[in-house]
Amino acid sequence: MPELIKKIRELRGLTQEALARELGVTFSTVNGWENGKHKPMPLLLNALIKLGRDIGLDPDIAAGPRSRAQRASVERTDGEDGGEK
Fold first, then answer.
1. pTM for the model
2. Does domain 2-80 have CATH number 1.10.260?
3. pLDDT tens track for 21-31
4. How far apart are CA 77 and CA 64, in angstroms?
Protein backbone atom coordinates (compact mmCIF):
# COMPACT_ATOMS: atom_id res chain seq x y z
CA MET A 1 0.00 0.00 0.00
CA PRO A 2 2.70 2.58 0.85
CA GLU A 3 4.38 2.02 -2.52
CA LEU A 4 1.08 2.47 -4.38
CA ILE A 5 0.34 5.75 -2.62
CA LYS A 6 3.81 7.08 -3.33
CA LYS A 7 3.62 5.96 -6.97
CA ILE A 8 0.27 7.70 -7.48
CA ARG A 9 1.60 10.89 -5.88
CA GLU A 10 4.82 10.90 -7.88
CA LEU A 11 3.14 10.11 -11.21
CA ARG A 12 0.80 13.03 -10.61
CA GLY A 13 3.83 15.24 -9.94
CA LEU A 14 2.73 16.11 -6.41
CA THR A 15 4.61 16.61 -3.17
CA GLN A 16 3.26 15.00 -0.02
CA GLU A 17 1.98 18.43 1.01
CA ALA A 18 0.18 18.95 -2.31
CA LEU A 19 -1.46 15.51 -2.17
CA ALA A 20 -2.51 16.21 1.41
CA ARG A 21 -4.18 19.47 0.34
CA GLU A 22 -5.91 17.72 -2.57
CA LEU A 23 -7.33 15.04 -0.24
CA GLY A 24 -8.08 17.36 2.68
CA VAL A 25 -5.65 15.71 5.09
CA THR A 26 -2.40 16.79 6.73
CA PHE A 27 1.13 16.32 5.43
CA SER A 28 1.87 14.00 8.35
CA THR A 29 -1.08 11.80 7.33
CA VAL A 30 0.25 11.33 3.79
CA ASN A 31 3.75 10.82 5.16
CA GLY A 32 2.43 8.15 7.51
CA TRP A 33 0.69 6.35 4.64
CA GLU A 34 3.85 6.34 2.54
CA ASN A 35 5.98 5.14 5.45
CA GLY A 36 3.53 2.37 6.33
CA LYS A 37 2.73 3.79 9.77
CA HIS A 38 -1.01 3.71 9.07
CA LYS A 39 -3.47 3.09 6.24
CA PRO A 40 -5.91 5.53 4.68
CA MET A 41 -9.57 5.25 5.64
CA PRO A 42 -11.69 3.55 2.94
CA LEU A 43 -13.10 6.83 1.62
CA LEU A 44 -9.61 8.28 1.19
CA LEU A 45 -8.35 5.03 -0.29
CA ASN A 46 -11.13 5.26 -2.87
CA ALA A 47 -10.02 8.81 -3.69
CA LEU A 48 -6.41 7.65 -4.09
CA ILE A 49 -7.45 4.82 -6.40
CA LYS A 50 -9.44 7.27 -8.52
CA LEU A 51 -6.40 9.57 -8.73
CA GLY A 52 -4.34 6.62 -9.91
CA ARG A 53 -6.91 5.69 -12.53
CA ASP A 54 -6.90 9.28 -13.80
CA ILE A 55 -3.24 8.83 -14.76
CA GLY A 56 -3.72 5.34 -16.18
CA LEU A 57 -2.36 3.40 -13.20
CA ASP A 58 -4.07 0.03 -12.81
CA PRO A 59 -4.48 -0.57 -9.07
CA ASP A 60 -4.79 -4.34 -9.67
CA ILE A 61 -1.25 -4.48 -11.00
CA ALA A 62 0.20 -1.85 -8.69
CA ALA A 63 -1.16 -3.16 -5.39
CA GLY A 64 -2.24 -6.76 -5.84
CA PRO A 65 -5.26 -8.83 -4.79
CA ARG A 66 -6.37 -6.72 -1.83
CA SER A 67 -6.89 -3.72 -4.09
CA ARG A 68 -9.12 -5.68 -6.45
CA ALA A 69 -11.85 -5.78 -3.81
CA GLN A 70 -11.30 -2.10 -3.08
CA ARG A 71 -11.46 -1.31 -6.79
CA ALA A 72 -14.77 -3.16 -7.09
CA SER A 73 -16.06 -1.07 -4.20
CA VAL A 74 -14.98 2.14 -5.97
CA GLU A 75 -16.67 1.04 -9.20
CA ARG A 76 -19.91 0.29 -7.35
CA THR A 77 -19.75 3.74 -5.74
CA ASP A 78 -19.15 5.39 -9.13
CA GLY A 79 -22.10 3.52 -10.63
CA GLU A 80 -24.51 4.83 -8.01
CA ASP A 81 -24.37 8.39 -9.30
CA GLY A 82 -23.65 7.77 -12.95
CA GLY A 83 -19.85 7.83 -12.88
CA GLU A 84 -17.54 10.79 -12.54
CA LYS A 85 -17.72 12.95 -9.46
1. 0.61
2. yes
3. 999 999 999 99
4. 20
